[in-house]
Amino acid sequence: MSEIKKPVFKPNKEFSKNARVKNMCEYNDLQDWATEDYEGFWEHFASEKITWKEPFTSVLDESNTPFVKWFEGGKLNVAEQCIDRHLDKRKNKAAIIFEGDRGDKQVITYLQLFQNVNRFANLLKNKFDVKKGDRVVIYMPMIPEAAYAMLACARIGAIHSIVFGGFSAEALKDRIEDADAKVVITADGAFRKDKPYMLKNVVDKALEGSTPVKKVLVVERNGEDIEWIANRDYSYYELINNESDKCEAEVMDSEDPLFLLYTSGSTGKPKGVQHNSAGYILWAQMTMEWVFDVKENDTYWCTADVGWITGHTYIVYGPLAMGATTVMFEGVPTYPDAGRPWKMVEEYKINQFYTAPTAIRVLHKLGENEPSKYDLSSLKVLGTVGEPIDPPAWRWYYEQVGNSKCAIVDTYWQTETGGHIVSPLPGATPIKPACATLPVPGIMAEILDSQTGEKAEVGETGYMCITKPWPAQIRNVWGDEERYKKSYFGDVKKDGKAVYFTGDGAVYDEDGYITITGRTDDVINVSGHRMGTAEVEAAIKKHPNVAEVAVVGKPHELKGEGIFAYVVLKQDDGVADEVEEVKAINAVIKTEIGNIALCDDMVFAPNLPKTRSGKIMRRILRSIAKGEKITQDISTLEDPSIVKIIEDKVNS
Ligand code: WTA
Questions:
Q1: What is the Cα–Cα distance from 503 to 519, expressed in whole angstroms?
Q2: CATH number of the domain that 601 lies in?
C-alpha cells in the first residue's frame, strides 16, 4: 500500500480564473466527453485547432490495428500550421528568442521565421534535390537554424531525423543508414561553457566508407576550421541568400510522416520512432495550451535539446503551432553559475519554465539560494519531464523557484506518445509532490495489472498503459512493422485486446492519482536520457578483452540513474591495471555511442550470476549495485558463490 499521504497543493486562485481549464469540473467534463464520444471529442478539436487545406473525412480508422489512421482525407502542411497561419495576426511577434552560450541574443519574429524557413526549404529543394518523403538527418547544436531545418523539411514534405549532438560518429552512422538519409544538416560546431566544440568532424567520420548521404549542409556557428569536401559539403551562409523567401508548401496527407526520432528500447539497436503529420501537430498544440496554459503575450522557455522529443514537441512544434514565443538556449544551465536560468527568467520575463529533474537537482545542489537573487515574479507555470522527480527537488522548485504560487506540471510522456499523456493542468489539478497526477483529457491512460489486465488496485504497482489509440501516437518503427507491434502491443491485454504499454510501472493512490515508478524493462534513465542497457552492453562487448558484460542502472544523486557495468574479461588472471581497463572500455563506449553512455561504475568479476540455463540474473546485479541485501533465492544459480565474490568486489 502507498506510504505516507502526500500533501496536496491547490491551484493558485488568480491563475485559475483565466486558465483554459479552470477547475476539476471542467477537467472531468472534458474527460467524460472523450470517454463517451471519443471520435466526437477528437473531431471537435481537430476541426478547431488545425487549419486544413482540405477537411478530413474520417476521424479514426482502427481496421488494421495497431496501425491506426487519424483524420484521413485531411490535407495540411505542418510548417504552415506553425508559421503561415499566424502571419495575419502576429507577423511582428517574437516566434523564437535565442540566447547563445556566450550571452549573444537574437529575436526572430514570425515573419522572419517564415522567410528563413522558406529560404531553407528552397535550398534543400533546389540545391540538394530533397523531395517529399526523403529523409534528412539533422545533427545540430541548439541554434535557431536547427528549428529552421526542421520546419523547412516539414514545408517540403521531407522527413527529418534529428540525432542528438552528443552522439558519436558510430551512433550517427547507424541512424543515417537505418533511415537511408540523403542529406545531413549540421554545423561546424557550437559553444559550451564559453569554449567551442565540434560537430562537423563527427559527421565526416560517420560518412566514411559507403553512405547513402549525397550532400552535407554546414551552418557556421563557431567559426572553427573544418574540412570541406568538394561537391559534398556546402556552406549555409554562402547559399542561403540566393534563395527566394517564398516556397510553396507541399500538400500533405494527415498520415504522411513528419519525422523520425531514434530512441532506445530494451533490446537491440535504437528504434526509429515515426510520427505523422496531423495527429502529432494537433496534440503538440493542445497540450501546449492545456498543460502550460501559455497566453498570447507570454514567454515560454523549455530547456531541452532539439535532439530529444521534448525539444521537438515543446520547443519547436507545440509553441509555434499555437503562435507562442519560445525561448531557445544554446548554453548550460550552470554556466557561468547556477543562477543562469534565473537570470534569464528575470531578463525575458519568462512565464512558463520547463526542464528536467536532473537539471533541477543540479541547480538545487550548486545554487540553492540563487533563485532568491533574481526577480522570478513573471513565472506562472513550472514543468518537469523525463524522469521521476524526487520530493526534495520538487519542494525546492515549488518554494524557491515558484515562490509557492506556481503550479508544477510533472508531465509524464515518451518519444512514442508524441506529447504529454499524464500531467496536472495548472489551473485545475490539485498537485502532489513528485506525482504526475491524472491523464491529460482525451488520453485513456490506465494502470493495468500485469497479470490480469484489470485496472490495478490502489497502492499496487502495475503497467502504465494507454487503452485507446490517440492522435500523436507512434505510427511505426521505421522499416520494422514487427518490431512496432512487438515492442508496444505485445505485453498487455485488456478485455482480450492488445493495448499500448509504455514500459513504465506506475501506481494509483487513494485519489486515483498516478505516480510513475520507473521502467519495468532494461531501459535506464540517465539524466533524463533513455538508454537501453543492451545498447551499452553491445558497445562494451566491442572491446577485444571483454568476454561478457551486464549493465544495470544504479540510483545517482544528480543523474537520477547512473550506469553500472559488470565486466568479465577474456583472460581473468587478475586485471593488471583496473583504472586503465576502465578507461579503455569507456573509450569504446564514447566511440560507439557517445559521452552520455559512459559508465559511472565498472566492476570486473570472474563471472556473472546466471541460471543453469545461462540467463544472467540482472535483478541480483541491480540489488548489488544499489548496495541492497540479496534476498532472492540464489541456490538455483549455476554458481551461487559468485554473488558473494561480486558483492565483496563492489564493497571493497
Ligand atoms: C520517463 C521523454 C517519471 C519514463 C519525454 C518514460 C518520466 C521515459 C516522466 C521516456 C515523468 C518521462 N515522471 N518518468 N514525468 N517523463 N519519464 O522517450 O520512463 O526520452 O518511459 O521521452 O522517461 O523518455 P523519452
A1: 6
A2: 3.30.300.30
